[in-house]
Design a protein that fits this description.
Helices cover about 25% and strands about 30% of the residues. By secondary structure, the protein is α+β, with helices and mostly antiparallel strands. The protein folds into two domains: about 1-35; about 35-130, no CATH class.
């Protein structure tokens, strides 16, 4: 055992330890990259479009299609695939609890070969990405 400890702290032992640790990190990073197919939603920007002082807000009335709006927000989100596997024909559904409403959804793709379509209902929006 003393010989092993002496060898371990020698230059040769340190090289072997470094090599084994490097190999383990390489295997772990390869395994980490192969997590399977999944999609990541990353929120880029969120803004309240009716962010007004309380003393002034009571005197302003905001409407959309003749319905009064208490709060109006904007959210910009990026959707991407962090893995190496191609995910095709994706349908993403966004939903809000009542009485919130989704007014509009705009989808833009960085790829030319995919087709995007969106549908908006009162509390639910669907974005379809077809390759």
């Amino acid at each position: 055992m003393k010989d092993f400890i002496k060898w371990l702290f020698s230059e040769a032992g340190a090289g072997w330890v470094f090599g084994l640790v490097s190999l383990l990190v390489l295997l772990a990073s390869t395994f980490y990259k192969r997590k399977g197919k999944h999609v990541v939603l990353h929120e880029l920007e969120t803004a309240s479009l009716i962010d007004i002082r309380k003393d002034v807000r009571d005197r302003i009335r905001v409407t959309y299609e003749d319905h009064e709006v208490d709060a109006l927000g904007f959210n910009q989100t990026e959707v991407f695939n962090p893995g190496f596997d191609v995910i095709s024909d994706v349908i993403i559904t966004l939903s809000l609890p009542a009485p919130s409403r989704i007014i509009d959804v705009a989808a833009v793709s960085s790829l030319d070969q995919c087709q995007l379509s969106t549908t908006v209902e009162a509390h639910k929006a669907t974005v379809s990405v077809l390759f």
